[in-house]
Design goal:
By secondary structure, the protein is mainly alpha-helical. The chain is about 50% helix and about 10% strand. A three-stranded antiparallel sheet has the order 1-2-3, covered by helices on one side. It has a three-stranded mixed sheet with strand order 4-6-5. Strand 1 (about 20-25) and strand 2 (about 30-35) form a beta hairpin. The chain is globular and about 60 Å long.
């Protein structure tokens, strides 16, 4: 998943299944073994590495005669709140330790951050989701419609196996994993969603950033209330390989007004 409330999401699964995280042989992917003995978790912001891990793990389990279910969870969030959240994440140490930065200065810092960090943020925004959309032959607009209708989630079943694949161990990830799209704005409904996909596992919301750093409450509010100019939006969307998805993302939330 992209960075989009994922810390709290992974903490939920860790606590619900009583799991302990550890590294893996694949860089950027962590795995957790859980108390029940048959549930394993993995987390990553890297698409190719995540898929490689899932394929390798499945082959290893198949060699033992074990066939496990697979659920991929990813989250989409309104860019109007995602961008301020990424900014506050980047400056949290400096801001939490300062008592002199005013809300007005925070907005100026935010605008400068939007300008100088546009390319980095374009990459952060498109981690995984565009690839998942391609894998499951769908688009963000359709998934957003489904999430609005269903109260913040969309569940996509595994795709039919390619005709050319005859060996069970050679199946692509989209043919053995279910994909769960979640909408961060509907996180109050997540307990119901997780009860549906993992009955008996209670979802507990993580602490909010304001609760973790009270000094940032007014600064955070000021940054969130700032409305990007059309020029700032287009500077973020850019004109490169990331732009089509970013444009679709902004349009899905009605964030383009021209």
């Amino acid at each position: 998943t992209p960075k989009c409330g994922t810390g709290g999401l992974s903490l939920h699964f860790q606590n619900s299944f009583n799991c302990r995280w550890r590294g893996t042989e694949i860089e950027g992917v962590k795995m957790a073994r859980c108390e029940d003995g048959h549930t394993n978790l993995s987390k990553s912001h890297r698409h190719e590495e995540s898929l490689q891990f899932l394929r390798d793990y499945r082959v290893k389990e198949l060699s033992k005669g074990i066939v496990k279910q697979c659920l991929i969870v990813t989250v989409v969030r309104d860019p109007k709140t995602w961008l301020p959240s990424k900014f506050m994440e980047d400056v949290k140490t400096k801001y939490c330790e300062s008592t002199t930065i005013t809300p007005e200065q925070a907005v100026q810092d935010y605008r400068e951050w939007l300008r100088v960090s546009a390319n980095r943020n374009r990459q952060r925004a498109q981690w995984n989701i565009p690839h998942f959309l391609n894998m499951y032959e769908t688009n963000l607009g359709d998934q957003m419609d489904a999430m609005w209708r269903q109260g913040g989630y969309s569940l996509l079943p595994p795709r039919p196996p390619p005709r050319a694949v005859s060996n069970e161990s050679d199946l692509p990830v989209e043919s053995f994993c279910t994909l769960l799209f979640l909408q961060l704005e509907s996180s109050d409904r997540w307990p119901e969603v997780f009860e549906m996909v993992a009955p008996g596992r209670r979802y507990e919301a993580p602490e909010m950033r304001d609760e973790l750093c009270p000094a940032n409450v007014e600064r955070n509010r000021a940054v969130k209330s700032y409305m990007l100019t059309d020029e700032e939006k287009m500077n973020f969307i850019g004109d490169d390989e990331y732009s089509p998805y970013l444009l679709e993302w902004f349009n899905a939330y009605g964030y383009l007004t021209f």
